[in-house]
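Reproducibility note. Readers wishing to regenerate the assembly model reported in the main text can use the exact inputs given here. Chain order matters: entities are listed in the order in which they were concatenated for prediction.
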Amino acid sequence: MQTLDPIASEYPDIDFYVISYNEPVEVISDYIQEHGYTDMIAAQPVGTMLADLEVTRQMAMMAVNGDGIIYHRQVMGSADQWGPFFTHLSEDPDAVPASVEAERQKDQRQHDLQLPS
Amino acid sequence: MKKIRIFAGILAGTALLAVWAACGSEPAPATPAEDVQTSRSTSAATELPAPTTGQSVSAANSAPPVATIETPITVAATEPAAAETDSPTAPATDTPESATEVPAPAATDAPPAAVTATEAPAPPADLSTTAPTATVSEPSAPQGTNVGEFPPPFTMERADGTPIALADITAAGKPAFMLYFATW
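Running the prediction on these inputs yields the following structure tokens for the assembly.
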């Protein structure tokens, strides 16, 4: 959280949630307020959220865009790699990853080619 | 006796003429009718009945409409009218009739070709109008947990008890970043 806080302050257009596996949400919230991480939101999973999202390892990160589509997933990574993702999402809330966009364009080209001539 | 000698001389003369004619005579000059028939057979390349001399000459004058058969179909569609207007000046023989009968199918075939030529560009124009509408529709993301997929519905809860669902994030249109961690 110490590493994530300056990033959360840099991108106010993105909501940053910190979710603990084993600690109550009240403990995490107190920890955030104690250290002044005001740009992060403490939350706890409800129901089978972790299983549904296949979050099986600690220090897992997942970002979704404004449409709810998963933009980035990472496990045990460095916060230095997140800058370009957050910049892209901040500029375009509905942005999709470059790999997904390339796949969409490929599918669109195939769809256009399949039109009757 | 004298009459016999004269008759014998005549017979001998005719015999010599006959021998001379049979051995060394030049072919007789061709008649104008034969010239016209040969020229028509090479130029028009159509079998025509042997007409009389006067008719064959007039048929040779009306031969150019027959030669128009070799022109393209688009031109032949307009030239049969000229051939029909020229034919009345020629005498009523088989040659002008054959000249008018041959271009007739070409004239009837030309309009369908023109119709198909005008109908052919129409389908691409319709497709060009339908293509942009197909590109506007964006394919929906498949559901899953990988990048580029729409995650299954989930709900988390803030410290004050406020639930936050995926639908809330989608409704707000604001990206969200979730950090899952554990303490020990």
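We highlight two features of this model. Residues 2-24 of chain B form the longest helix (23 residues). The CA atoms of residues 156 and 180 of chain B lie 12 Å apart.
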